Every structure is written in C-alpha cells, then in structure tokens.
Amino acid sequence: MDIILFRHSIAEKWTEAYDDFSRMLTVKGRKKAQIKACLLRDKLAMYKSVAIWSSPLVRAVQTAKILGENLGCADIEIKDYIASGEISLLCRDLQNTDRELVIVTGHAPYLDIWCERISGEFIKLRKSGYVWISLDELDPPRGKVKQIDNDKD
Questions:
Q1: H or E element at residue 51
Q2: What distance in Å separates the CA atoms of residue 145 and residue 51, rounded to the nearest whole number?
C-alpha cells in the first residue's frame, strides 16, 4: 500500500475578516493543482483502487476534487482529523482501508509531521507539494519515501 500526502494548492490570503475554513484556491492555485494532477495521472495508472481523503477546509477539498477529476477518482472522503492533525485516526483508517493507494489532501504542519512519523524523514511541503510513501507496515504505518514533488510556487 502507498500513501501520498498532498498539501493543498495556493489559496486566498487569510485576513481577520475572512473565515480560514472557507478560503478558496486562487486561479494560480487551481492551475498548479491541475498541473500536478496531470503529472501524477500516468504515474498512478498501475493502481486499481485509489482513495482520496481530504480535510474539510475548502482549499483542501478543491485540491482533492482537481486530483480526483484527473485521476478518475470522483469519490472523495472528507475526514475532519486531517484538518486537526490527529495521526492516530489516520493510522486507524489506513489499517482499515482496502485501497492500494490513499491520497491525503491537507495542511502544514500536519502533513510534514505525518511524513516524519511514517517515513522518518521530515519534509516541509510547499503548497501543491507532495510526498509519496510506500508503506511496509500498517500497524503502525511505516514506510519509505518513494517520490517528492515539492517545487516552489
């Protein structure tokens, strides 16, 4: 089983007058997510069963939908713990899924911390960056980094 930790794409700037939960992707953010999704499409063709799990925050859901549209995976599961960083719930869900690949769209710093806990490598993901980890164990999840795509905006 593999997992891809994918940080949401570029979103509108946060202001006190604007709810952080509702921040949407910018035009540049949508374009960047689209490019990353197209690049991933061929690399993921070998997987017969893919799940996309997303934080409920709008920018993460929008990123997940772009990935799903390009990967032929329309069913996106919203998981509140992705926004709050509860790794124990991620571990539980990884142990209980029958999917060959899980893509998690979420936020810093949680994805960075999860990457370190799972792979032993701390990778500070930029927006639209991802780390692909091949899991050797599920209880608890442990694996090796297979690929990193973490270029600047």
A1: strand 50-54
A2: 19
